[in-house]
Sequence to fold (693 residues):
Amino acid sequence: MTLESLQPGHRARIASIDWDALPPADGKRMRALGFEPGVEVSMAHHGVFGGRDPVAVSIGRMTIALRKVQAAAISLEQA
Amino acid sequence: MSDTIRVALLGNPNAGKSALFNKLTGARQKIANYPGVTVERVAGMLTLPDGTQMEAIDLPGAYAFDASSPDEDVTRKVVQGEFPGEAEPDILVLVLDAGNLEQHLVFAQEVLALGKPTIVALNMVDMAERDGLKLDATVLSQALGVPVIETVAVRRRGIEALKAAIAEARGQVGTLADRPKMDATERRLEARTIAKATVFQTSRARRIGDRLDNVLLNPWIGPLILLVLLFVIFQAVFAWAAPLSDALDAGAGALGEWVKAEMPASILRDFLTEGVIAGVGSVIVFLPQIIILFLFILIMEATGYMARAAFLMDRLMAGVGLSGRSFIPLLSSFACAIPGIMATRSIADPKDRLTTILIAPLMTCSARLPVYGVLIAAFIPARDVGMGIGLQGLVMFCLYLAGIVAALVVALVLRGTLTKGEATGFIMELPRYQLPSIADIAIGLWQRAWVFLRRAGTIIFSATVILWVLLSFPQAEPGESQVDVSIAGQIADGLNVVLEPIGFNREISLALVPAMAAREVAVSALATTYAIDATDEEAEAEGLASTLSKRWSLPTALAFLAWFVFAPQCLSTIAVARRETNGWKWPAFMVGYLFALAYIFAGITYWSAVALGL
Fold:
């Protein structure tokens, strides 16, 4: 399962991140915000009008907005 | 001045750095640009308890020195003393959000590795406590090997202690031991360890912010709230400002009358009353509207709602090939395209950024408010269309909407042609909600108002004076119209050939020439033109709005409004676009397409209105 299919309110742990699927600048920013294998995340909010683009993800004590394409690069495992 | 120490404030975005900076320096701030880039350099002077003078510099927020945006690049260069023309800071104040230590300590490792004298401001400790965190600053200080001061910038807590610590650190310049070099993963691990040691108690207090987000980011209610908020802002800009504007207008009128009564009739008196007071006065009256608009923008930024607005807007922006990140520059552009274009630095993707720069002038900036304001007051009746919504406010809203729709269409076209490229990402921290500090908002408003007044005092003043000279010479013989005879009148005759087909009269052609300098000059130019052309005292004493309503047809007024939706003329915007895009190519394109759209849509509006018999 990848991050973009996580339902709001659910938690999971990052299993792996496909950095190659992300533009280098996006990868850099996501690393700077703490996206790394082993880190727990939860889905805070889905985007407008029932869409999943963008989504808001809780990581650490932050809420980060991401697009579907970026979230899809993050594989999850059960927390 | 060897006595002045230079202190740079740095930290992650949303660490409360600017609030801390405001409390250190008060309103005595100097805002300029770093040479060569359009990143704002914010600096202020203060006196430390021991009498030392200190210059504080507020650096752009950064997640890492490994820059992914022009902002972060400036921060790195200034801190490392590599920025040309900017002396290396003596002491660093590293601002950390107490409620998000694990994240903020990552960048802290990078800063401390520089080995420069550093003081940590552990900021927003009150919010951390509210969120159920208990921290031990002593543990943090030991782990980092630098002094740690607990601060609550918005409440002035810890400010004096911070000043004292800076004064003390002054004596220890260059005594920090070398630190081991770490890579990104090691820094994160270290940050986690230190954060765990510092935070000795965590209770899972349900954060107020989460509950707010459940409403404000609700997929259905959220966008609705944003739309209502934007509508309220534009209503407020028009309605709340009216009494203040009227007072300023009356003040300018009274001043003109007084000068007229006190001075003997002369060319100097005419210059003062018709040129300076009529011209500058007609622009100053819009200061209240600009302040109200900025008040809302500053509050949205200070509370943390602005990032939510970007989140909500991302879907729409993605539809035209942009991202929610473009929303903040574009919203700022409603106040002025210049800070708006400068705010595009936070957009990492170059094509995304270029597109945002090119459409920024389509957002109705506050300089257009004077133009809209005068014309709406003159031609749109102040009727209530129901539910407490005024017709004037509604028309204003439609004009804003027209600019937004045009911007979206232009962005879509550009992203498919000139700035074609892959869809860009959107990664953005949604900061915690915060009660804004009145002092911070006041300082922000003061700075915006000052920028506007300075423009009124320089660009608008000069343009008005030049226009007055062009209008007043050569002097008309009795029986001739002064405007017809003047140099400006002759220039306008030439322009009019081009502009007449879209319903513009000669006074408009005339006003558009000096309005190249700044859009709002159009109003003062019209005021000056009609003041000079006024044949009797009574007509001269009339407000500009009532003069216009008598002399212009409704289709002409509507065409003029349509022109100003696109209105490309603003030298400062062109200059800033040139600097941001490193050349004349894109600004030239911008001006070209805006003129074309302005002409086409003014024409369509005019002829449609005529056909409808308005």
User: Anything to note?
Assistant: Chain B has a mean pLDDT of 83. The first helix of chain B runs from residue 17 to 25. The two ends of chain B are 68 Å apart (CA to CA). Residues 152 and 251 of chain B are 42 Å apart (CA to CA).
